[in-house]
Amino acid sequence: MTGEVIISTNLTRMSIFQLYGLNAQYDQVALINFTFIDSRMVPNVSLFYKDEAQTVWHFFGYTRPLDTPICGFLGKSCPVPFWEQYRILVGVAVLVIILMFLIICVGCGCMISSRRAEQAKINSEWQIPFALLLEPEEKRKAHGTSRRSLQSSIATGATTTSDFCENYTIMIYEKDLVLTAKFQYTSLSKTDMERFVKMRKLDHENLNKFIGLSIDSSLYISVTKLCSRGSLQDILSRGNFSMDYFFMFCIIWDVAKVGTVALMM
């Protein structure tokens, strides 16, 4: 900075200073004028340019430099890269996220496995393994003594039936005689399985107990409780049935009860 010093009539110094710089053609030009009047410490500032970026900082990329360098005046305050500064925290966060994801996956797997196990337990109430359905002893002996008859029945596809009118087969399940009926294979829906669960739990004196269904053979086999006297169709078709007083009373009672319910409705 340089300038001319002027003494006023009051013997006070009037200092005029100018700030010079180089333009784009490397010529010296005045940029700022500082004038101190009397003893005031605050000068009057006059700018000789309009565009600071184009006139003053054209050698610095048209951008005013920072008051303090990025790394400080000693070069020891440079900003640390994000990864070097937070890599431990990032690693811990990633590890926590992975652990939470694994916990969620394990929890979902346990829930799915538990639901499947629960559904399998519910289905096991009405599903009967085919290996547990045994033929009565007299039928096995008859099959052993009449091998030719057995081969003929297999060839013609006939099924062993009981003395009932319906196409039932008497078999043994858990040491009890039961009635079984064969049906063609078909896919079972979730609704069908829920219906079988309800049928298995249904217990009424006027309904024949549904024990279960065997689905692990070539045909579906329904298993119901054995009625020693047969179905109503069996009794009526024979025509030579005898009814005791208790049986007749039960029939009269059921008819009267049904009639009363119908009249009330």
UniProtKB/TrEMBL annotation:
GO MF terms held by the record: adenylate cyclase activity; guanylate cyclase activity; nucleotide binding; peptide receptor activity
Entry annotated with the keyword Membrane: yes
GO biological process: receptor guanylyl cyclase signaling pathway
Key words of the record: Lyase, Membrane, Nucleotide-binding, Transmembrane, Transmembrane helix
Any single GO CC term annotated in Swiss-Prot or TrEMBL for this entry: plasma membrane
Transmembrane segments: 88-112, 245-264
Gene3D superfamilies: Transferase(Phosphotransferase) domain 1
PANTHER family in UniProt: GUANYLYL CYCLASE, RECEPTOR-TYPE GUANYLATE CYCLASE GCY-1-RELATED
Protein name per its UniProtKB record: Guanylate cyclase
Organism per entry: Caenorhabditis latens
